[in-house]
């Protein structure tokens, strides 16, 4: 189970494991529908609930009390997996809550810090849960080059944190610039991307592509994402190029 729209691999992972997937729609502002989530948990008794924090593709952080209510509702029969892939940009975490919730798992990755190519992530949970996960962990799941790269990253976390801070500052500037454009709705983001609603996403994406600016059209992912696009926060030069192309597409 997961609130939707969400990271597409949540549903795919359930399918690969031969399990049913239940998606619970978010509210129109992309916040969690707490009542709907709790009702779905009571009805379906899921073995696992994925909760992206911040959410992908919407970029927002769910309300903490809503997440805690879901974790509590799962009780002893369900696991809550909080996916913190974008945590470096959110600057908040459920990691400190692990000792109080034996059914909580927190997942992270090095991908969003610019190390996507090494395909390395990790999870933290109660020791009893970790023992169970270790039983099904594939052997040799981390090669020596990945391990060395991860160790190098750990030795230079300050550099990666500084990079994330710069992107956060650029995110604020980019969001403010887009919000000033007519017909554009900018949604709050705690990730390294921004979700935006435009009058015609297909038209906008085509115009931007013609200017060699590639963004993601989210419209087909879910009805709540109609005419929404997702923009990755980049360098000042690329952000400026995107804004120029976006303004031109809205005027065309």
Beta fraction:
15-25%
Number of domains: 2
- The helix/strand order is EHEHEHEHEEHHHEEHEEH
Strand line-up in the sheet with most strands? 3-4-5-6
Any guess at the CATH architecture of the largest domain?
3-Layer(aba) Sandwich
Give the overall average pLDDT. 95
Radius of gyration: 19 Å
Structural class of the helices, strands and pairings?
alpha/beta
Taking the alpha carbons of the first and last residues, their distance comes to 42 Å
Number of helices: 9
The named CATH superfamily of the largest domain: Type I PLP-dependent aspartate aminotransferase-like (Major domain)
Task: Describe it.
With 252 residues, the chain is of the alpha/beta class. It has 2 domains: 141 residues, Type I PLP-dependent aspartate aminotransferase-like (Major domain) (Aspartate Aminotransferase, domain 2, 3-Layer(aba) Sandwich), CATH 3.40.640; 94 residues, Aspartate Aminotransferase, domain 1 (Alpha-Beta Complex). The chain has 9 helices and 10 strands. The protein has a 4-stranded mixed β-sheet with strand order 3-4-5-6. The chain has a 4-stranded antiparallel β-sheet with strand order 7-8-10-9, with helices on one face. Helix 2 runs parallel beside helix 3 and helix 8 crosses helix 9. The protein is globular and about 55 Å long. The mean pLDDT is 95.
């Amino acid at each position: 189970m997961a609130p939707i729209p969400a990271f597409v691999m949540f549903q795919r992972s359930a399918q690969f494991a031969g399990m049913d997937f239940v998606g619970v729609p978010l509210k129109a502002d992309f916040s969690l529908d707490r009542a709907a989530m709790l009702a779905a948990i009571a009805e379906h008794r899921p073995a696992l609930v994925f909760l992206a924090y911040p959410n992908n593709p919407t970029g927002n952080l769910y309300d903490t009390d809503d997440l805690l209510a879901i974790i509590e509702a799962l009780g002893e029969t369900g696991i809550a997996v909080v996916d913190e892939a974008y945590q470096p940009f959110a600057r908040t975490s459920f990691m400190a809550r692990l000792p109080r919730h034996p059914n909580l798992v927190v997942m992270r990755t090095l991908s969003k810090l610019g190390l996507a190519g090494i395909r390395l992530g990790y999870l933290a949970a109660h020791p009893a849960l970790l023992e169970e996960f270790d039983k099904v962990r594939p052997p040799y799941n981390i090669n020596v080059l990945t391990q060395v790269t991860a160790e190098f990253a750990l030795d230079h976390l300050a550099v990666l944190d500084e990079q994330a801070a710069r992107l956060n500052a650029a995110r604020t500037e980019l969001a403010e610039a887009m919000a000033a454009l007519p017909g554009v709705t900018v949604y709050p983001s705690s990730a390294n991307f921004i979700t935006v609603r435009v009058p015609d996403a297909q038209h906008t994406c085509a115009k931007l592509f013609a200017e060699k600016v590639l963004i993601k059209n989210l419209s087909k992912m879910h009805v709540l994402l109609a005419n929404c696009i997702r923009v990755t926060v980049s360098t000042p030069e690329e952000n400026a190029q995107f804004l120029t192309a976006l303004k031109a597409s809205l005027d065309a």
